[in-house]
TrEMBL record:
Its EC number is 2.7.11.1. The keyword Transferase applies. It comes from Dichanthelium oligosanthes. The keyword DNA-binding does not apply. In the C-terminal section; belongs to the protein kinase superfamily. Ser/Thr protein kinase family. It is a single-pass type I membrane protein. The chain crosses the membrane at residues 287-312. This is non-specific serine/threonine protein kinase. Residues 1-18 form the signal peptide.
Length: 672
């Protein structure tokens, strides 16, 4: 009993020494290999050294020590025996081009590899022990990673290692094909193909041969590696043989299918028919399912999402609003995208100016190299838009040299875009009230502009079958082309914003003074309200003053230009109200004509105003002005307003309109 315990104790603590000098395993079932870490033998008998990922290391060792060195008959020297071994392996990798690190066949003095490192040390060494002659480790490595630290030649090589992983000799994996007259053929060790390795050492000649070949191919005559090396200082008298393997970050399985070893003779050949089957070599299908497919799906989804996002963004960015009633105006329609690109995306450096309705941008239509001005009008209510578009497009069809041509429009949600031809000299008010540049317009130009604008407005009122009311005549809506012709722009826009109902909008403030008094009461624009505005415009151009001025010298009292001119006239000095900047350089008759027509047009009572056809005739001199005097009751002074200031804006008009007995509509029919 004691003996048995002692025996058990001995077998457990002392290394078992083999009496045999050879073994052969066609599959490892029952081989009783000492495995550690991640190594194991499957039920089929397949030795899996490393299985998985993340820097695993695994070892499988023949359980007993082998007697590598025997006492020489005539001396006490232990002479190293020759040995021969062969094994069949396969590396099953997740990817066809990445794996690692590899497998090593080793002969080592000890089998405790707990202090060794995985990956580049192949589970055989660590940073300190690598290369130390006291290791007493000989190995043949099948290295699938090119590790510069170890002087590796490539990522697919076979090397002879002595006490360290810097191979004393290495060669790219391959074999000399006996069938092909010894031509060298490359092998890829991580291909998942089954391959066989032979390691033969002739102790007498100190010659080591390492041979590699694909499965079933007989051992090639010419070894892959043949190296003169004396292993007698490396291999200890008693030593272990086994396999070591390590993984990098790639998931792969290092498998050994069979192994044969012999001291003092050639290893028994392995029998392929008896070798265990490899687990379904799924790499390709596995990869398709687990890597390529999800990747493809993700890519597909990303592409679709990206495309949808792009399209939706594009849709939103360039979204327009179009309704069925617009079909007839389609020829006048611009796409938002075209306008967006024409104006550099409505960039600030393309901004020409901003008015009460919105901002105006300069643009260029690349197709025609045509310069345009795009007015962005914010417009929320659908009310009136149909009539407005019908009107402006009909005006757009009218070609008159004193009208700014409307090229078309575009509609978006909350936004209306009007495309006009670009007029290089900008709006008249900038020239008129530009004190900084001091480049006042000379009288001839002013008179030319006045006559042009009167023709344009008269054309709107009288030309076609339909009366067109401008609604917003003022100096800033008179644009000047390259030849300084005055051209009326912005016709009809005011229709969208009913002045009468909401007289103190920002827009109206800019327009104050131009609005005929009866508008405050009736909210109805007529050709005669246009005439009133035109009269104000005439006075503004002649006097170089805005129709309404806050006079700082008189306690911020509102000063009406009409009254100011009338005042001068009353003093017998009508010409004295002319723009001082002209320096008297004007035709006195023309000047007084313009001032008088201006006063005539801006009479409070609509009935007493002339129609535009008459105005044109007065200005052309083809019809004499009616007799007028500054005290004529028809001029109905606006001076009343001065005492009440701004708040009473609409008051005097109601007062003065009491005097007008005839309705505006009657005036209209009577006047024409
Ligand atoms: N067709 C155009 N060509 C060149 N410049 C233009 C054109 N249309 C407008 N502008 C410029 O853009 C500025 C702003 O015009 P906008 O019509 O918006 O304002 P406004 O005339 O002052 O006021 P309102 O909104 O009452 O018309 C103008 O003062 C003018 O300088
Ligand atoms: C080894 O890998 C196989 C297949 O990937 C798996 O089924 C098995 O559980 C793994 N074994 C270990 C010990 O990781
Ligand atoms: C005895 O050993 C020596 C070397 O140590 C060797 O040269 C000699 O041949 C050996 N003799 C016999 C009989 O083996
Ligand atoms: C291996 O060696 C380490 C120390 O180097 C020791 O702690 C461990 O117990 C040994 N393992 C075996 C199985 O002998
Ligand atoms: C080699 O290892 C031995 C024992 O582990 C140690 O004493 C020696 O210093 C090492 N030599 C070198 C060069 O590291
Ligand atoms: C074999 O491999 C070597 C080095 O990897 C390469 O230069 C050579 O072109 C390969 N030959 C064939 C036939 O693939
Ligand atoms: C090594 O290979 C060569 C042929 O290239 C052969 O002559 C020699 O005997 C081989 N040596 C061993 C130990 O197998
Ligand atoms: C191997 O052969 C040598 C002589 O060549 C002999 O000394 C030795 O005992 C043999 N070893 C075994 C294990 O047979
Ligand atoms: Mg304008």
């Amino acid at each position: 009993m004691l003996l048995l315990v002692l025996l058990l104790f001995c077998t457990r603590s002392l290394p078992v020494r083999s009496s045999s000098d050879q073994f052969v395993y066609n599959g490892f079932t029952g081989a009783n290999l000492a495995v550690d870490d991640s190594s194991f033998v499957t039920s089929d008998g397949l030795l899996v050294l490393t299985n998985g990922t993340n820097r695993l290391k695994g070892h499988a060792t023949y359980p007993s020590l082998l007697h590598f060195r025997n006492k020489s008959p005539n001396s006490s020297i232990h002479v190293l025996s020759s040995f021969s071994t062969t094994f069949v392996f396969a590396i099953l990798s997740e990817y066809t081009d990445l794996s690692g690190y590899g497998i090593a066949l080793f002969i080592a003095a000890a089998k405790n590899f707990s202090t060794t490192l995985s990956y580049e040390y192949m589970g055989l060494f660590n940073i300190e022990s690598n290369g130390n002659a006291s290791n007493h480790i000989f190995a043949v490595e099948l290295d699938t990673i090119r590790n510069v630290n170890m002087g590796d030649i490539d990522s697919n090589h076979v090397g002879i290692d002595i006490n360290g992983l810097k191979s004393v000799k290495a060669a790219s994996a391959g074999y000399y094909d006996d069938k092909g007259n010894g031509v060298f053929r490359n092998l890829t060790m991580i291909s998942g193909e089954v391959m066989q390795v032979w390691v033969d050492y002739d102790a007498k000649r100190a010659e080591l041969n390492v041979t590699l070949a694909p499965a079933q191919v007989p051992k090639p005559k010419k070894p892959l590696l043949s190296h003169q090396v004396d292993l007698s200082t490396v291999i200890t008298e008693w030593a272990y043989v086994g396999f070591s393997s390590s993984l990098g970050d790639m998931s792969s399985r290092h498998c050994i299918l069979g192994w044969s070893f012999a001291l003092n003779g050639s290893a028994t050949p392995l029998s392929y028919t008896k070798l265990p089957k490899l687990p379904k070599a799924r790499p390709s299908s596995h990869m398709v399912l687990s890597v390529v497919l999800p990747l493809a799906i993700v890519m597909f989804i990303l592409t679709v999402v990206g495309a949808v996002f792009f399209l939706v963004r594009r849709r939103i960015k360039y979204a327009e609003l179009q309704e069925s009633w617009e079909d007839e105006f389609r020829p006048h329609r611009f796409s938002y995208k075209v306008l967006f690109h024409a104006t550099n995306g409505f960039s600030d450096d393309k901004l020409l100016g901003a008015g009460g309705f919105g901002r105006v941008y300069k643009g260029t239509l690349p197709a025609h190299k045509l310069e345009i001005a795009v007015k962005k009008v914010s417009h929320d209510s659908r009310q009136g838009i149909k009539e407005f578009i019908a009107e402006i497009t009909s005006i757009g069809r009218l070609e008159h040299k004193n009208l700014v041509r409307l090229l078309g429009y575009c509609r978006r949600k909350h936004e209306l875009l009007l495309v006009y031809e670009y007029l290089s000299n900008g709006s008249l008010d900038k020239h008129l009230h530009n004190h900084e540049m001091d480049r006042t317009l000379v009288w001839d130009t002013r008179f030319h502009i006045i006559k042009g604008v009167s023709l344009g407005l008269s054309y709107l009122h009288d030309n076609c079958e339909k009366v067109v009311i401008h609604r917003d005549i003022k100096a800033s809506n008179v644009l000047l082309d390259a030849e300084m012709n005055g051209r009326l722009g912005d016709f009809g826009l005011a229709r969208l914003y009913d002045h009468g109902t909401d007289p103190l909008t920002t827009h109206v403030v800019g327009t104050i003074g131009y609005l005929a008094p009866e508008l405050a009461r009736t909210s109805k624009s007529t050709p005669l309200t246009d005439v009133f505005s035109f009269g104000m415009f005439l006075l503004e151009v002649a006097c170089g003053r805005r129709p309404v001025l806050l006079d700082d010298t008189q306690d911020s009292h509102v000063c009406w230009l009409v009254d100011w001119v009338l005042e001068h006239w009353g003093k017998g000095d009508l010409i004295g109200s002319m723009d001082k900047r002209l320096g008297g350089n004007y035709d006195i008759d023309q000047a007084s004509l313009v001032l008088k027509v201006g006063l005539l047009c801006s009479r409070p009572s609509p009935c007493s105003r002339p129609v535009m056809r008459q105005v044109v005739q007065y200005l052309e001199g083809s019809m004499p002005l009616p007799d007028m005097s500054p005290t004529s009751p028809n001029f109905g002074t606006l001076a009343l307003l001065q005492s009440d200031g701004f708040e009473a804006y609409d008051m005097p008009f109601s007062v003065s309109s009491k005097t007008s007995c005839i309705l505006e509509s009657d005036c209209l029919s009577g006047g024409r």
